[in-house]
């Protein structure tokens, strides 16, 4: 008996020892630097190959190319950058750039040594490789697939000034014969769709031999289409590959910048190829002070009757300066030399000229917005056209009607003119526009709609035939025949709401989704809140493609665009849709079979489904599948109904070494406003039923739709990474928030506090150790919540709004506009201005309740925040400090709304976790929290933390 007890005791000890040995370690921030994961993807045109890059967050990567339905796999090192891989159209070759290794990149930063990419071309049948050094760009030869064109980087000794020649060598490499042909001084090149023609431009020293050329890839014959002392750029083939357009620039002493003209090439036939050149300086009808825009890519109309391009401001040189320069020109070299050295004395008037800005109440855009957007305004491209037959130039867009969309088939264009409403829209966010129809043959403009509500979109969705469009007004969708002007109510006979039921912004009857038109232009595809409707253009025929999914709380989440160059939804082909259940958060994929009127759900489960692809030339489908615990991996099927899917790859190979979340629970609860809501509660790693855990409540707006999304370990721009906290023994709560107008902060309280209480009631959340964190809008709500509740032991707020009254009229520096429109019609949900709504503004401002704060707060606010003014963080920090409340604010110099620089992201991620570990787990307080850091000691402090985020000394 004693022996049996001893054996049982030893066995129990053994089990306990094994259990401890098998318990995985928690992630550290150093582990995040080494975290290995996949990025990017490519599917070969025949669907038989897939490729992706993988490797650590910091370090060298590899490219994997593998057979989709086989185990054959190739692996190639690609350096520290995940450049995309391209397959040839015949699926026989793959090509990708190889960047410098991570160590080389770090060394080069210190020495300023230039680094160059290599190109690797792989023959997929046997993995034979051909490499090329110092590669800038490359392209396979379209459908032909016989060639690859490789452009090389310029020599280090090449001139780098603005007017220096940009051309470099391009190698045409025949993939089958291995023969190659070099073309020198190429600035741009592009194959047509078939790959039998190569258009390229030459930009050589002294502009010698500059021009645009066309090479017949079958015969090797090259035709010079245009030669000049000029620069050629923006080569753009049409979709059929039988015509292209480009720009040509010439120096002109009258203008500050080069003067551009448009070239159209069509009817390709060697030396007999047709060429059209439109030079604005030769056209008396061309608007004065304008020129062809060098940043807008020109293109042909489908019927090749018209060239479309942009125009913008073209500034003349000062005539007096030009004259004085020309008069001072002398044949005497000595005089020339002196002229270069002698600098004119600055004029007294210039020295004493005031440097100021005048802000006028009638400005449609604030002066700050005009400053921020100055370069955009100068280069703004006004859509224009040139009809070949009658040599007619037409400026389609102008300073009032800036936004012009050329419709398919180029029969009409749609113009949007908000000039009469721009000032009001910038004040209260409620935007309106006049909509015009432009006949592209005559240039005649006709107003279709006056003062169309544009905050909700206010755009026309144009059918592929270019003759009909759909639009939304006051809760209903309509169609309009652009030829006759006839309109029809598309949704009037449908007993369903087309007002977005989840949009709680201050928007008049926000619309549901419009998925556009069928490819034959006969049907509009429009969503209500759950179902997708197929509606004839006249509104008389209606079919529900999802068959009353509303009753099951299931919605069509969107259509996958899987067909190359598609024009609308081709109902003669199988169409695929994302499917989502808003109640249980299950997701899946559905198919609308060819010619059918019902979407069949192929599968739906507790996973998230991402990228969905179809092989261009094969019946192979691929998609990603993941959940809160399993990282995204690719599956492929050779069946249109996606049966018998094969797992193609794996991801995050190191995850098994670490402790990971044990699961997620979806909690139903009721807000204090009486709304039925949900919250996602993620279980910590090594979760044991009956034990309560420290919990981070992460907030923004509605988050539970992401219930099954995978959280990739990373250094985030706001400091919080869910995977990291779950691995380290925290539970994470993500509640949904529904807003009432004029109570954004109080709405957060009404939703978040009951969610926390419901989570505590599960027994999983330790009610004495709950913290809250949010960034930006979430930072505002965090800052406000701690003025209204003491349910949280600690809080961390990133870039928070803290005074809604002062914030309302401050500048959103990233755009230069005010926050007023954002407050009244977007996220702020406070309207009108505080002078008529003082109680609501004050009631929802953290600073006005600051005396009630009892929760320690970690603030992040960067000094160059262009979204939430830095003064908002300063005001809250100083108020709390004055009241002797525990608060620390961290500012990363030069950073904007989120943290961009990797060392800063690492640093804040580590500090936030140190803070929460101290507050919720009882670990020692970090010195920067408990004592602070003297400015003179900051450098030393940072040096001692060099390894904390995985950064090497």
Structure report:
With 953 residues, the protein is of the alpha+beta class. It is 18% helix and 33% strand. Among the domains are: 320-351, no CATH class; 658-944, 3-Layer(aba) Sandwich (Rossmann fold). The chain is built from 19 helices and 53 strands. It has a ten-stranded antiparallel sheet, with no helix packed on it. Strands 44-45-47-46-48-49-52-53 form an eight-stranded mixed sheet, sandwiched between helices. Strands 19, 20, 21, 22 and 23 form a five-stranded antiparallel sheet that branches. Helix 11 crosses helix 12. It is globular and about 85 Å long.
Question: What's the quick description here?
Answer:
This protein is α+β, with helices and mostly antiparallel strands and 953 residues long.
């Amino acid at each position: 008996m004693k022996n049996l007890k001893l054996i049982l005791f030893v066995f129990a000890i053994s089990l306990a020892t094994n259990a401890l040995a098998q318990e995985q370690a928690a992630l550290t921030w150093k582990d995040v630097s080494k975290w290995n994961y996949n990025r990017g993807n490519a599917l070969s045109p025949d669907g038989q190959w897939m490729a992706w890059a993988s490797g650590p967050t910091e370090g060298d990567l590899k490219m994997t190319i593998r057979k989709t339905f086989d185990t054959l796999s190739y692996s190639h090192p690609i350096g520290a950058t995940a450049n995309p891989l391209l397959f040839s159209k015949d699926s026989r070759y793959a090509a990708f750039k190889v960047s410098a290794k991570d160590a080389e990149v770090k060394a080069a930063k210190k020495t300023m040594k230039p680094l160059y990419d290599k190109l690797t071309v792989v023959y997929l049948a046997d993995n034979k490789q051909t490499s090329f050094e110092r590669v800038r760009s490359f392209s396979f030869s379209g459908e032909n697939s016989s060639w690859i064109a490789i452009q090389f980087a310029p020599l280090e000794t090449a001139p780098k000034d603005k007017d220096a020649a940009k051309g470099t060598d391009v190698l045409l490499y025949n993939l089958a014969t291995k023969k190659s042909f070099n073309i020198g001084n190429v600035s741009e090149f592009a194959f047509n769709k078939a790959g039998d023609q190569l258009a390229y431009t030459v930009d050589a020293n002294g502009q010698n031999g500059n021009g645009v050329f066309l090479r017949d890839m079958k015969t090797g014959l090259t035709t010079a289409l245009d030669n000049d002392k000029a620069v050629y750029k923006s080569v753009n083939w049409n979709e059929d590959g039988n015509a292209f357009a480009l720009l040509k620039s010439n120096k002109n002493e009258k203008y500050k910048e080069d003067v551009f003209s448009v070239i159209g090439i069509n009817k390709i036939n060697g030396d007999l190829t047709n060429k059209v050149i439109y030079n604005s300086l030769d056209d008396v009808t061309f608007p004065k002070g304008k020129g062809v825009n060098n940043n807008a890519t020109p293109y042909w109309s489908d019927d090749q009757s018209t060239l479309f391009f942009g125009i913008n401001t073209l500034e003349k040189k000062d005539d007096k300066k030009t004259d004085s320069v020309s008069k001072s020109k002398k044949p005497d070299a000595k005089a020339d030399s002196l002229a270069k050295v002698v600098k004119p004395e600055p004029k007294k008037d210039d020295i004493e000229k005031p440097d100021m800005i005048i802000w006028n109440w009638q400005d449609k855009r604030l002066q700050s917005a005009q400053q921020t957007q100055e370069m955009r305004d100068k280069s703004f491209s006004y859509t224009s056209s040139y009809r070949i037959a009658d040599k007619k130039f037409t400026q389609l867009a102008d300073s009032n009607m800036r936004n012009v969309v050329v419709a398919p088939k180029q029969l009409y264009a749609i113009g949007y003119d908000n000039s009469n409403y721009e000032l009001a829209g910038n004040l209260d966010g409620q935007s309106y526009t006049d909509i015009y129809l432009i006949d592209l043959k005559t240039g005649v403009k006709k107003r279709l709609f006056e003062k169309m509500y544009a905050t909700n979109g206010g755009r026309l969705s144009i059918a592929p035939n270019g003759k009909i469009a759909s639009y939304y007004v006051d809760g209903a969708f309509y169609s309009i025949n652009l030829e006759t002007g006839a309109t029809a109510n598309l949704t009037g006979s449908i007993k369903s709401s087309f007002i977005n039921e989840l949009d709680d912004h201050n928007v008049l009857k926000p619309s549901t989704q419009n998925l556009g038109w069928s490819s034959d232009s006969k049907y509009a595809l429009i969503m209500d809140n759950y179902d997708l409707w197929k509606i004839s253009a006249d509104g008389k025929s209606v079919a529900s493609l999802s068959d009353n999914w509303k009753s099951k709380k299931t919605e069509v989440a969107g259509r996958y665009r899987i067909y190359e160059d598609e024009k609308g939804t081709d109902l003669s082909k199988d169409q695929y849709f994302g499917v989502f259940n808003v109640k249980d958060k299950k997701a899946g994929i559905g198919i609308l079979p060819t010619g059918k009127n019902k979407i069949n759900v192929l599968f739906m489960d507790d996973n998230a489904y991402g990228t969905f692809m179809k092989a261009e030339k094969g019946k192979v489908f691929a998609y990603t599948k993941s959940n809160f615990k399993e990282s995204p991996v690719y599956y492929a099927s050779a069946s249109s109904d996606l049966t018998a899917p094969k797992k193609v790859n794996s991801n995050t190979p190191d995850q098994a070494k670490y402790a990971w979340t044990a699961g997620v629970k979806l909690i139903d609860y009721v807000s204090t406003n009486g709304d039925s809501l949900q919250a996602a509660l993620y279980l910590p790693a090594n979760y044991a039923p009956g034990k309560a855990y420290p919990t981070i409540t992460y907030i923004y707006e509605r988050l539970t739709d992401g219930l099954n999304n995978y959280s990739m370990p990373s250094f985030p721009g706001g400091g919080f990474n869910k995977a990291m906290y779950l691995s380290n023994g925290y539970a994470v709560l993500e509640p949904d928030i529904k807003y009432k107008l004029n109570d954004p902060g109080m709405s957060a309280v009404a939703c978040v506090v009951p969610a926390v209480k419901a989570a505590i009631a599960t027994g999983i959340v330790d009610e004495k150790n709950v913290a809250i964190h949010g960034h930006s809008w979430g930072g505002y709500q965090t800052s406000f919540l701690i003025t209204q509740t003491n349910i949280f032991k600690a809080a961390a707020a990133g870039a928070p709004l803290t005074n809604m009254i002062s914030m309302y009229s401050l500048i959103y520096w990233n755009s230069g506009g005010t926050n007023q429109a954002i407050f009244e019609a977007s996220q702020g949900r406070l309207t009108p201005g505080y002078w008529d709504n003082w109680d609501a503004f004050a009631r929802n401002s953290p600073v006005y309740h600051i005396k009630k704060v009892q929760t320690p707060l970690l603030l992040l606010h960067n000094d160059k925040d262009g979204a939430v003014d830095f003064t908002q963080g300063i005001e809250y920090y100083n108020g709390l400090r004055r009241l002797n409340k525990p608060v620390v604010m961290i500012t990363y110099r030069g950073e904007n709304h989120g943290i961009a620089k990797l060392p800063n992201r690492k640093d804040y991620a580590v500090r936030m976790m140190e803070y929460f570990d101290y507050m919720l787990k009882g670990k020692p307080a970090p010195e920067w929290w408990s004592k602070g850091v003297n400015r003179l000691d900051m450098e030393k402090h940072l040096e001692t933390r060099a390894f904390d985020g995985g950064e090497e000394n």
